[in-house]
Every structure is written in C-alpha cells, then in structure tokens.
Specification:
heterodimer; B: about 25% strand; phosphoribosylformylglycinamidine synthase activity (chain B); ATP-binding (chain B); PurS (chain B); EC 6.3.5.3 (chain B); nucleotide-binding (chain B)
Chain lengths: ~220, ~80
C-alpha cells in the first residue's frame, strides 16, 4: 500500500518542499501538501511532518502562532491517536508550543544564527524514527537556526532522560541546549522534534546522507508494525 | 478596558538577549549594572466584561509560554 504522508505548510515555512522531496524519495509516493488554514488532514495518514522555517515570522515566540493554527488541532488529534509526527527545526518549536513535546526552544546561547553540519549522537535507536540507526552511532546533520537552545527544568530533563526520550544529542553543544539535547520524543514515542534537518542530508549532493536512515527506518518500522 | 500583560523569563532561565544588552551597557561605560533581563509587554483593549479567567487563559494559551515565562496582568482601566 502506498505510504500516505503529509507535510504541513505554515505561512513562512521554507523547508516544506525539502521535506516533501525527502519523503517522496524514500517512500516513492509524494506526500499530501496541507496548508495551515485547512480544517482537516487527509484520511489514513501514516506520517505527518512539520517542516522548518519561520512560521508567522516567528511573531510572539518561534512556533507559537503556528501551534494555534486550525490544522494543528488536527495534528494534535492525530498524534494522540498514534500517528507518527516529525517536527524539524521550526516544526520542533511548533510541537513544544503545542505541548506535544516538553520544554521550549530559546535563542541560541551565542545569540548567533548557526548554519552548518553538526555531529549528533543517536541516544535512543529503539524509537520508530531512530530505528534505522544504531544506538550510540555518530552522524552528521545540518542545523540552521537562531532559536535552538532546548530548555526544560531539571525535573523534566531527568524524566525525559529516564524514559529514554532523548533521541539525539549534540556531540559538541552548538546552541546552549540543556544536556546537549538535539531531539526529543513524546512519551508514546510517536512524536519526534529535532533541531537538525535530516531532510537536508538525504542525497550525496547534499554533502551527506545521514538523514536518510531516519526516513527509511521510520518507513520500515511502520511497514512491519 | 485596557490591559497590560508583562511577560518575563522565569528566574534561572538563561536570557542571551539580556546578557548581550548587559555587555553593551558595560561597553557604554555604565557601572553597577548587575543583571539585565528582557521581557515583553502586550497591551490589549478588551470588552469591559472580560473575566479574569479569560485573561488568564489568553496568557496561558498564547501570550506566554509558561514553560519558560511568567506573566503579570495589569488592569489599566
């Protein structure tokens, strides 16, 4: 059966096309493109992606406006039903603002916008999204953000670490994130938010293909589920 | 009714903007500035019968992110 995925586009999203290209490349089926003002998601989705960018111009706080857009009510409902949701960069910010993921993404500690490849350590290779990797594996994925400094209080950090919900950590902390956290899972494991851009590392021409295993692993895990 | 909502970072949350402004003030030669924290003011003009509960909900749902921010509601009349 064809893989049914959707990429949500908010006003100001700018990695939605890259995400769609990556999903089509890996699955062979073009994802549905869904606009933020749409009231409904397509039926029977296998995968939802929230792309990077600057939704609503980062007004108020990064991701805050998008988290309250009409389509996000549907995304939250789908996530609660167990549909896998991947949020990258601004998508991660939206997921925290929508309270699907813990914590918040603050201004980088350096105050600088960072755009380069970073080394990541795969902390948990048992999740749907990370099953294409090996635990402890070191990979290289690009980041491009100003607000990627993951913050949560100590109690929350202890809890998410204890529950194995840290998917990726920075090998060298580039933005001030608490405990070097680059990617976080929800409790059920079907929602992942990460600042690095796996969709920008799926073709040798991108300079690396370490993002490929995320999409391939997720698709394989879903096919076997 | 005019309402002013003051949104500030919770104590202990790093404020890189505040830190940069602090450095800039020192660079301008101002002495004795111990700390700088930057927040946000939101001014609302709402119906007079807007309840405190509704105002709190606006803050909790959108105006502040209570993971990192505190808010204070002031009624300006």
């Amino acid at each position: 059966m064809a893989f049914r995925s959707a990429v949500i586009t908010f006003p100001g999203s700018n990695c939605d096309r890259d995400m769609a290209v990556a999903l089509e490349q890996v699955s062979g089926t073009a994802p549905f493109r869904v606009w933020h003002g749409d009231a409904e998601l397509p039926d029977g989705l296998d995968f939802i992606a929230l792309p990077g960018g600057f939704s609503y111009g980062d007004y108020l706080r990064s991701g805050a406006m998008a988290a309250n857009s009409p389509i996000m009510r549907e995304v939250v409902r789908a996530a609660d039903r167990g549909v896998p949701v991947l949020g990258v960069c601004n998508g991660f910010q939206v997921l925290t603002e929508a309270r699907l993921l813990p914590g918040a993404l603050m201004r980088n500690a350096s105050q600088h916008f960072i755009c380069r490849n970073v080394g990541l350590k795969v902390e948990n290779a048992d999740s749907l999204f990370t099953s294409g990797y090996v635990g402890g594996q070191e990979i290289s994925i690009p980041v491009a953000h100003h607000d990627g400094n993951f913050f949560a209080d100590e109690e929350t950090l202890d809890r998410i670490e204890g529950e194995g919900r840290v998917a990726f950590r920075y090998i060298e902390n580039c933005n001030g994130s608490r405990r070097d956290i680059a990617g976080v899972l929800n409790k059920a494991g079907n929602v992942l938010g990460m600042m690095p851009h796996p969709e920008r590392a799926v073709d040798a021409a991108h300079g690396g293909t370490d993002g490929l295993m995320l999409f391939e692993g997720a698709m394989k895990a879903l096919a076997n589920a | 009714m005019k309402i002013r909502v003051l949104v500030s970072l919770k104590p202990g949350v790093l404020d890189p903007q505040g830190r940069a402004v602090h450095h800039a003030l020192e660079g301008l030669g101002f002495k004795g500035v111990d700390d700088v924290r930057i927040g946000r003011t939101v001014e609302l003009d709402v119906a007079d019968d807007t309840s405190d509960e509704a105002l709190n909900e606006m803050c909790e749902k959108l105006l502040a992110n209570t993971v990192i921010e505190n808010y204070k509601i002031e009624k300006l009349g």
